[in-house]
Amino acid sequence: VTFTNPKTGLDEIKLLRDDYVQANCRILTPDNSDISDLQRKVWGETANEVSLSWTNPANEKSESVVVADIANVANQGAIVASSRNYYGIRNKELAEKVAWRELRQSAYPLLTANFKLNRTLWDVTPGEVLKINYLEEGLQEIFVRVMEVDYGTVDDSKINISVIEDIFALTKAKPRVPQTPLFDNNLEQPLPITDYMIFTP
Questions:
Q1: pTM score of the predicted model
Q2: pLDDT tens profile 43-75
Q3: Which residues of 56-75 are buried (b: 16+ CB within 10 A; e: fewer)?
């Protein structure tokens, strides 16, 4: 995201990464903010399979990796597919890692909300991660990413922000571990039979 830092007046670029410490995040509570437009996606609005295209440097052709959220598939009773094009990726391992990240975002019903902040949070910036503690709304220890900021006017000093639940705070999906093959293909000679049964038809 790009924004003008209210502290310095300089234009900045912030990468949305898993580079923050949750214990250091500032907290949104009824004491410093008012919440509105609180929504969470329903399962029917999520996708449970992601196909990601990347470029194989060996032949400069596009290839795809496909990942799926089995729990979401079971919940919806069907595969809901989506696709992503990341042709700048030229490594299969990185492509799989990005695909799992995209799946985590697509398959989970993320929370969105708007907040009106008081001036104690005057220096909030887009891309910043905040923690929500609104017990009356059933929200506790929810980490959200600030997407848009309106710093208010002379007549209205409240700061308006829109947030979305941060995917990096969710439980991370782990790629499947390749299964051990049932047969050893490196054997030169077949092994003798040790167990057998003789019967008549």
A1: 0.70
A2: 889 999 999 999 999 999 999 999 999 999 999
A3: eeeeeeeeebebbbeebeee
